[in-house]
Specification:
Layout: H1 2-33, E1 45-48, E2 54-58, E3 62-63, H2 73-83, H3 95-108, H4 118-127, H5 134-150, H6 153-163, E4 170-171, H7 173-181, H8 190-198, H9 212-228, H10 234-241, H11 259-273, H12 277-282, E5 286-288, H13 293-303, E6 317-324, E7 330-334, H14 358-368, E8 377-380, E9 399-402, H15 403-408, H16 412-422, H17 424-433, H18 456-467, E10 471-473, E11 480-482, E12 488-491, E13 496-498, H19 502-518, E14 531-538, E15 546-554, E16 558-565, H20 580-593, E17 623-629, E18 633-639, E19 649-656, E20 659-667, E21 671-675, E22 684-691, E23 696-697
Domain Glycosyl transferase family: 52-227
Keywords: Carboxypeptidase, Cell membrane, Cell shape, Cell wall biogenesis/degradation, Glycosyltransferase, Hydrolase, Membrane, Multifunctional enzyme, Peptidoglycan synthesis, Protease, Transferase, Transmembrane, Transmembrane helix
InterPro entries: Beta-lactam/transpept-like, Glyco_trans_51, Glycosyltr_51/Transpeptidase, Lysozyme-like_dom_sf, PBP_transglycosylase, PCN-bd_Tpept
Length: 711
């Protein structure tokens, strides 16, 4: 008897010891397998505008993790009821469920039913593979038991709900709630929670988008399970099962209008803030960007219209960038008409800038160095500069021209002549301040003849200097970045460089306004203040062909650049027109986006205004009339048709023989009296208009000779 009892005791003790050793092994192995870094799930990064409104998401997996406190209890109950009804009772494995599954597997001769708990499913999804071997199942049990040792039931359920796949690219319950119902998980109703709980078993088979009838059937199964688990009453289930799906599907695809901007954000995150593209797509950041969706979407729509791009075929390309010149934030960017993600971004490709370089390399520096003023006269004679032989595009030369008109009409000779006076080294020093570096040392810099060229982004940034009282702002695509905890981890650097005085920046703004109103950029219509400069380069292979066409301009709020051309210009690929097309496109983007109407340029305090240019009239209407004054004196009344500009001064000349003398002057009117004339000396009179801005006389009028007798 004693021996038998001892034998039984030994067996029991052995079993207990074996179980203890097994349990210790389970804990050891499970703990070894668990790597907490794997709980850091891939989370979607949000791009939001300045108001916090979501623009798009960047992700490897579209997931937006939420805490279990944000998930309503009835939604939690739906998952527990259908996936693991004894979830709150077991410690990682459900022996009853496993026994039931084994029994059914033996009867069927194969694996037909699973006995996995929610904890086991979490263990499998995060740490193991999907194979159905017994070894994998054993590992799953080990990891599940260890998870229950480490974490609370609520934490395990939270990780499970954030990890599972719900179909159509949605990972985690928050992304699923947004996808199917366009609401946060906290707002889900009972039947909506039941529908989501129905999906993990077969996200495609039970998709309410693809298979609504099957989805309703599966949802109703979940509701029945909730009744059996005492989470719902029979009356509630009957009422809920009668409801429709009530979907509000928000399947967000990447808007093609945003592709260039997204790429620029990803690049800036890596280059300026040291967040790799992989980290950005997985890290669940919130990235605030300065994008203006009206500008971005309008630019995209107009870029699709071939009529704006004057190429020999419909393959002509373009690039566009628009900045807030007060902050440097980039509002809109287009890397091409058919831009594909991580493709050729033409906003960063260097091109020959043509005449857009004149204000930056020549006239702005000449003003700042006090070499010339807006109404200083510059040489406009056909001439060579050593071996360099520039020409005005229209082949016309005025002899002398003001800086104002040289800019307005984009004359080449005055620009080269001024650079020659200014000095190339001085001009390049200013270009360096504008972040435009060039190894070129010739006068062709004045006309944009650069070896490497300039990008649209560089040009827009450089012109922001004129728009912003002489201060250059650094462009940026990211305002700030927050991590998943809401902490700001990066902000835009507000870099500024003083390049020109506010006086000279204002002078340049007024002259560039004239380019748009009356000069080379006058094509098209824009109801608002706009200053800018055109530019184009020719292609020598075909007569009249254009290689690059530009417009760079700014309003009181924004500054931007448009480039047009081919990625490679040759005899079969070139533009047939010039800078009028980018000028038109720029104006139309601003107009259709409806962001700038009614605004005007405001003169900074303490700055002298630049009056409109005085235009001297040609006078062919001089007439004379003799009158007799008291005491028998003869007086000649000279009259002519004056200019509407009351600033014009008129010199009155008297000619006798070879002598010519100024005998008087009047301002702003068309009459003058010459008293006490001597008719026997046969005096002749004429008028010469005078420009007080340029200190220049105009063309003499017709001549008149007073006489007592008339025909």
């Amino acid at each position: 008897m004693y021996k038998r009892a001892l034998y039984i005791f030994s067996i029991v003790a052995g079993i207990l010891l074996f179980a203890l050793i097994g349990y210790i092994m389970i804990l050891f192995f499970g703990s070894y397998v668990i790597d907490e870094k794997k709980f850091v799930m891939n989370s979607a990064t949000k791009l939001v505008d300045q108001n916090g409104d979501e623009i798009t998401k960047l992700y490897v997996e579209n997931r937006d993790p939420v805490s279990i406190e944000e998930v309503p209890k009835h939604v939690q109950n739906a998952f527990v009821a259908v996936e693991d009804v004894r979830f709150y009772e077991h410690h990682g494995i459900d022996v009853k469920a496993i026994g039931r599954a084994l029994y059914k597997d033996i009867l069927a001769g194969s694996k037909v039913e699973g006995g996995s708990t929610l904890t086991q499913q979490l263990a499998k999804n995060i740490f193991l593979t999907n194979d159905k071997s017994w070894l994998r199942k054993t590992k799953e049990v080990m990891v599940a038991i260890n998870l229950e040792q480490r974490y609370s039931k609520q934490k395990i359920l939270e990780m499970y709900l954030n990890q599972i796949y719900f179909g159509h690219g949605a990972y985690g319950i928050q992304a699923a709630s947004q996808l199917y119902f366009n609401k946060d998980v906290s707002e889900l109703t009972v039947e909506e929670g039941a529908l989501l709980a129905a999906l993990p078993k077969g996200p495609n088979s039970y998709s309410p988008i693809l298979h609504p009838e099957k989805s309703i059937e599966r949802r109703n199964v979940v509701l029945n399970s909730m009744q059996k688990a005492d989470f719902l009453s029979a009356e509630e289930v009957v009422r809920l099962q009668g409801r429709t799906l009530s979907l509000d599907v928000q399947q967000k695809t990447k808007n093609p209008a945003y592709l260039t901007y997204i790429d620029m954000v990803i690049e800036e995150a890596a280059e300026k803030h040291h967040i790799s593209s992989d980290d950005l797509l997985r890290g669940g950041y919130t990235v605030t960007v300065p994008m203006n969706r009206d500008y971005q979407e309008t630019a995209y729509e107009l870029f699709q219209q071939a009529a704006y791009f004057p190429g020999v075929d419909e393959q002509a390309q373009g690039a566009f960038v628009l900045m807030n010149h007060r902050t440097g934030g980039v509002l809109s960017v287009m890397g091409g008409r058919d831009y594909v993600q991580k493709g050729l971004n033409r906003v960063k490709v260097k091109r020959q800038p043509g005449s857009t370089m004149k204000p930056l390399a020549v006239y702005g520096p000449a003003l700042q160095e006090s070499l010339y003023k807006p109404y200083s006269l510059l040489s406009d004679k056909k001439q060579n500069f050593g071996q360099y032989k520039p020409q005005n595009i229209n082949g016309q030369y005025a002899g002398k021209v003001t800086m104002y008109d040289a800019i307005k009409d984009s004359k080449n000779i005055p620009a080269v002549w001024t650079l020659n006076k200014l000095g190339i080294s001085t001009a390049k020093a200013y270009l360096t301040k504008l972040d435009i570096e060039t190894e070129d040392k010739g006068l062709s810099i004045a006309l944009g003849g650069l070896t490497e060229g300039v990008t649209p982004l560089q040009l827009a940034s450089a012109y922001s200097t004129f728009a912003q009282d002489g201060e250059k702002k650094e462009p940026y695509f990211i305002s700030e970045i927050k991590d998943q905890n809401g902490d700001v981890i990066a902000k835009a650097e507000q870099g500024t460089t003083n390049v020109f005085s506010n006086q000279n920046a204002w002078y340049m703004t007024k002259m560039l306004e004239a380019v748009v109103k009356d000069g080379t950029a006058s094509v098209g219509k824009y109801e608002g203040a706009l200053a800018g400069k055109t530019g184009s380069t020719s292609y020598a292979g075909v007569k009249g062909a254009t290689r690059d066409a530009w417009f760079v301009g700014y309003t009181p709020s924004v500054v931007g650049a448009v480039w047009m051309g081919y990625d490679r210009t040759d005899n079969q690929h070139y533009l047939t027109k010039g800078s009028s097309y980018p000028s038109q496109l720029f104006k139309d983007i601003l107009t259709e986006a409806k962001q700038e109407t009614g605004k005007v340029f405001k003169k900074p305090k303490g700055v002298k205004d630049l009056p409109d240019p005085i235009r001297l009239p040609i006078i062919n209407s001089l007439q004379q009339e003799l009158t007799f004054q008291p005491f028998g004196l003869l007086t000649v009344n000279l009259t002519w048709e004056p200019s509407e500009d009351k600033r014009v001064v008129y010199y009155v000349y008297e000619k006798q023989g070879s002598e010519r003398n100024v005998i008087g002057k009047v301002k702003g009117k068309g009459s003058y009296e010459v008293e006490r004339i001597n008719l026997f000396k046969s005096p002749t009179y004429y008028i010469v208009p005078y420009n007080s801005q340029t200190k220049e006389e105009g063309m003499p009028s017709n001549e008149v000779t007073p006489t007592l007798f008339s025909d």
